[in-house]
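Suppose a classmate hands you a notebook page containing two proteins, each written out with its sequence and a corresponding row of structure tokens. How would you begin to make sense of it? This section walks through that situation. The first entry is reproduced here exactly as it would appear on such a page.
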Amino acid sequence: MREGYSIAVIIVLVAGQIVKGFVILCALVAALAPIRPETVERYYSTTVYPAIQAVVTPVSNLVPFAFFDPLTVLPAIVLFMAVALAVSRARVERSVRPVGALLLSVTTFAAIVYLVFLGIWGLNYRRVAMSDRLALEPSPPTSEQVLKLGFEAIRRMNGLYAEAHRIGWEPDPRFDKDLVKAYGLVQDRLLGTATAVPGRLKSSIYGAYFRWTTVDGMVDPFALEVLANPDLLPLERTFVAAHEWAHLAGFADESEANFVGFLTCIGAGVPAQYSGWLSLYWLVGVEVTPEERKQLWDAVAEGPRQDVQAITDRLQSGQLPFLRNASWRVYDRYLRANRVEEGIRSYGQVINLILRARFEDGWLPVRRDVDSSPSSSP
């Protein structure tokens, strides 16, 4: 009887190891296997993912706290306790076997998390690129065009400032009807559907980290919720919301989220338009020379200049440069690992999209057939 029990235990243990190995292998294949963007677009990004987001985000919106907090803190606590236990057992048994077993379990758990990440949101990194989705001018923008776009952003800021401040900004952007309507219109133009649900901007225990690293917000890829920097000014929250909502619509790439967020803002009411043009001014400022940046700054009127200074003061007052730099280096590696070749430089690619895309009246982008191969598209 005991012998049969021992054999059963051995079979269970071996089966467990096989399952762990299989899970890890699946994660490696998922990470490395080449998948055509058109396949991801057709069978995930426009079918499976919208169905997931339509359920998960409304549930996340029901509560004010971020699910991301316990989803990250609890595993960290469990890991700390498991490491302590494994090290203790290794000392008692005078063997590295407990530590090896823990490493295998941690690797398996990480593989499961990665597979869940891909299934819930992460595969959107591999969908059809915005540059293959839009009708674009063949030539990249010149430095003169970039500078001209900067002056256009300033002209709009100067003209919208007084009315935007008179009306003010909705504390919860989900209740800005014009913004939500524009969000749906942009989705419909780019995807042929408008199903993504706007996310509630939530506070998080990572708020201090956002402040120290100058991160304005992020999307939790598991609960499909929006986490926002607690120090954001009202005039910033609208664009940050539109940017993160773009992620919720499945546009994982940062430049694409900036593009969708910008179009959403300028298609909405005056306060949102001001927020969008102000954000574009910042993005252009990163792409021009110091001399050109001074030319742009000299053209900013007193009102918008005060807003720019207020944002600058916010960023400088809370940041920790060493942590900010380290954080952005890590995020750069994360983006590259998810096949965003430009890394954090992808943020600035929105300028390229705006200047090369063809627009109809009302800043509605002209879309081409995303089901066709990019090489065969016009």
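The notebook's second entry, a different protein, reads as follows.
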Amino acid sequence: MSDTVSISTLAGDCSFLAYCARPEGEPRAAIVVIQEIFGVNEGIRRKCDKFAAEGYLALAPDLFWRIEPGVELDPDVPEDLQRAFGLMGQFDQDQGVADIEATIKHARNALSVKKVGAVGYCLGGRLAYMVAARTDANASVGYYAVGIDNLLREKHGIAHPLMLHIAGNDGYVPLAVQQAMHEGLDDHPKVALHDYPGEDHGFATEMGDRRSAEAAELADSRTAAFFAEHLG
């Protein structure tokens, strides 16, 4: 079952919408699903629905609401891709993390789900790292997170488990950045990194040209085991 819920900002002065997929029966935990630069599109909603089928309450907040509410873009359409890059250029990542934190609080307080994790893709993968470093999310996962080398200074703030899936042939995450991620995080007691040699950015999308089924299934199985361990 799915619907749309309204979430108050941390300041309580505005609200934004989130896609909500609910499991049958009592949720085992909640997971905030963090969008790519393409908005809360069909692919992100499918991610939520899959987590709901696994027993989680899944929430995908519309993080572009301050720029343009309700954005849904297709990464396989060139015009949509360019529009997505334009939205990314206007997006305030710090505000985005605050909105994810508000979503975590909504899950705990309004929806009465004690344990809350986060999982993000592309931009959402970067935000998942920031969530792990800046919030009290119980566990976080980032897929092909961009620009983590510029966020390693925040690693001391990671107090709960974080898993990162790294595409080995990622056009947006060069080998030097991947190496910096390993050098900076391999010895962190709360962080686990998984490499996918030869895979490109977006390999675990639910649909479209970017999907690489074998690697996606492996990464998703690791994510499922990770959340089962740390969220219950």
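A careful reader of the second entry would note: DSSP finds six helices and eight strands in the chain.
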